[in-house]
């Protein structure tokens, strides 16, 4: 009889391409992964992993069993969804991922609401960017991800996922308090053609969006600094080091020395929840989405 947890471990190695990657994905030690795989090899009587330089690779038998494991685990997820749907109550564990401003602006209220309404549901949050969250949902490492795209640049999504809108999040331009446009009622992006910009790190979806949007307005971006967190970006703006896009979700009070100016043609992020289609019947997912929408009602836009 094949052990389900050992199959899950082999599946994780196949997905991540390494023992250490599997350990990170499963939130266990590399030693625990190695022990599970050694037991699985004894149970099957076949070698499933072979050394490959400083790492490992799946043998033919390992790839064959990993393919079966993927189908078995998907069927188990369907069974769990059906059982939860049969019970009609959100129960068990729910793993949630969210980008930082959603984690800060939505999840405290949403998680508190879930705990109060559904005490048998254990919801756990991990903060992560959409580029990390979407593959984790596809692989089954997350149950629900809260991600974003922009009004003029959708986030590419793979097949097999369900999405539901949570809220639209307008964004302003943050400028130093002594900037010539700081007291304007509204601005257009072309007004900042000569300014230096503070952006997200290169390669991130939001950085690519900023480049795409400014160039679409005929502005060649001059990026002076890059920072992951919006609060860090605003601190750089306060120091007079450039201007930045400032979404309103999770923003809180802006630092002294910063003014936020609305954009005439509203810039907006679409925030939505994602989950696997084969888990669509789970009441816990529906409860989480409803809690997030309720939390969104308390967000000033």
Characterization of the model:
This protein is α/β, with parallel strands linked by helices and 301 residues long. The chain contains 10 helices and 11 strands. The strands form 3 sheets. Strands 3, 4, 5, 6, 9, 10 and 11 form a 7-stranded mixed beta sheet that branches. Helix 8 (205-216) links the parallel strand 7 and strand 8. Helix 2 packs across helix 3. The longest helix is centred in the first third of the chain and has 28 residues, at 60-87. The radius of gyration is 23 Å and the shape is elongated.
How would you sum up this structure in a few lines?
Helix 1 (4-16) crosses helix 4. With 301 residues, the chain is an alpha/beta fold. It has helices spanning 4-16, 19-26, 30-44, 60-87, 100-105, 107-117, 130-139, 205-216, 230-238, 283-297, and strands at 49-52, 55-58, 92-98, 121-127, 144-150, 161-176, 197-199, 223-226, 244-247, 258-261, 267-276.
Helix proportion: 40-55%
Which structural class fits the helix and strand makeup? alpha/beta
Count of separate DSSP helical elements: 10
Main beta sheet strand tally, sense and closure: 7 strands, mixed
The SSE order reads: HHHEEHEHHEHEEEHEHEEEH
Round the mean pLDDT to the nearest integer and report it: 90
Could you tell me how far the N terminus lies from the C terminus, measured between alpha carbons in angstroms?
A: 55 Å
Morphology: elongated
Strand content: 15-25%
C-alpha Rg (nearest Å): 23 Å
Which consecutive residue ranges, at least 5 long each, have pLDDT under 50? none
Quantity of strands, as a count: 11
């Amino acid at each position: 009889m094949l052990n389900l947890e050992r199959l899950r471990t082999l599946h994780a190695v196949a997905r991540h391409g390494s023992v250490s990657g599997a350990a990170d994905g499963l939130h266990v030690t590399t030693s625990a992964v190695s022990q599970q795989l050694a037991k699985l090899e004894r149970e099957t009587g076949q070698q499933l992993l072979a050394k490959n330089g400083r790492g490992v690779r799946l043998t033919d038998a390992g790839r064959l069993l990993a393919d079966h494991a993927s189908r078995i685990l998907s069927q188990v997820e369907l069974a769990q969804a059906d059982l939860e749907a049969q019970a009609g109550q959100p129960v068990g564990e729910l793993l949630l991922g969210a980008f930082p401003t959603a984690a800060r602006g939505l999840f405290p209220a949403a998680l508190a609401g879930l705990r109060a309404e559904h005490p048998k549901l254990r919801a756990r949050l991990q903060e992560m960017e959409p580029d990390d969250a979407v593959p984790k949902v596809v692989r089954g490492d997350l149950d629900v991800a809260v991600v974003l795209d922009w009004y003029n640049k959708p986030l590419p999504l793979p097949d097999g996922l369900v999405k539901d809108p949570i809220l639209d999040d307008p964004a302003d331009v943050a400028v130093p308090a002594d900037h010539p446009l700081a007291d304007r009622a509204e601005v257009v992006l072309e007004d900042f053609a000569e300014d230096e910009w503070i952006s997200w790190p290169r390669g991130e979806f939001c950085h690519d969006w900023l480049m795409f949007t400014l160039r679409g307005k005929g502005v060649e971006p001059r990026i002076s600094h890059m920072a992951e967190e919006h609060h860090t970006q605003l601190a750089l703006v306060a120091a007079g080091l450039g201007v930045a896009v400032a979404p309103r979700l999770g923003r809180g009070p802006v630092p002294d020395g910063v003014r936020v100016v609305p954009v005439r043609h509203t810039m907006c992020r679409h925030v939505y929840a994602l989950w696997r289609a084969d888990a669509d019947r789970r009441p816990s997912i529906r409860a989480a989405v409803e809690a997030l929408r309720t939390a969104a009602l308390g967000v000033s836009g």
